[in-house]
Amino acid sequence: MIIEPIHFNLKDGRSAVLRNPAPEDAEGVLRMFLTMLGETDFLLAYPEEKEKLTVEAEAEILDKSNQSPDSLLLICEVEGVIAGDCDIRFNSRMKTGHRAGIGIGILKEYWNQGIGTAMFEAMISAAEKREGLLQLELEFIEGNARGRALYEKMGFRIVAMKPDAVKLKDGSLRNEYTMIRKM
Q: What residue ranges define each of the domains in the chain, with the CATH number in brackets?
């Protein structure tokens, strides 16, 4: 799904844009993704699990998402740097077509700048245009207080918990929470 770029200013005054990624963004998106995975335990993979991803494969993923009517992938670009991404995946089956899943990731250097709020506003706006959509869903890992605060600010509420769903390298286990925002 393609949308018009959304321009906004970060809290520190820098200009940013949310836009669909182009094939030439694949290298920057891949670099951002691998960096993010190493910056936090609140994503579901470690960088070494994704090191075999290629720029070519990433370009195919970006193109497929842009061409699909059932997904919206946006990147946030700040002064030529891809600072984060978000996506919404609409279900197309009859029994689950009223639901959509959301994912978000932002490089640590760009936390607390308003990017997450802008991303959610864009995804919610896209969701509101989807006929028959009744709820947005996301998951977060125990301990992600910053993420949880953003999700609650955007109208999401915890509806379920999977105990010990995530095992970190140090062997510790974390619960995973499901949140839903009714449309």
A: 6-133 (3.40.630.30)
